[in-house]
Amino acid sequence: MAHKWSIEKKLTKFRNSDVHDPIDVDYDPAAGEHRPATLVFATERSLDAIKEALKQRRTAIYTQDRLIGEEQYLKPLYEASIEVLTSEVELQGRVRNRIFIRNSSEVPLYLESAGSVVDISVPERLTLDAGSTTVMVIRAISADISAERDVEIPFTVSNFLIAPSKGLPVKLMLKVKFTPAQR
Known about the structure:
This protein is α+β, with helices and mostly antiparallel strands.
């Protein structure tokens, strides 16, 4: 409700905690818990720059492994966090192949399929753990394809919310060489 209201009223997004005890009393860092925070996208490290960013609504909320903010601020965070280590792949027949994806951020990324991909089977859901490399398994849908092309795999980052219940739309880019199955 607060997210929807902040969009409708064009309000700066804030999230904090009212913790008076040591932080470890309310949050368990060893279990991956963290206190809520407001990210401020200032142009420099100064009070004037922070004040200007707050007035211009250049903020995002970080709470419970979610980022909540405008797409223009969340998309660069996502793009800076992700690296497709296997950006070129050969799919022979219907044999599965692996794509390695690195998430260098401190936040896990929960990807959900945002549509089908021509000629390729991809997972419906994929979790990219924080600071880890994840394997995504793909395969060609047909064993008889012979082609080489760039492929966009559409996903939604369900824990990067750009509107209430609306995740950030993203695409993983691959160069795929399809070769028919050996007979």
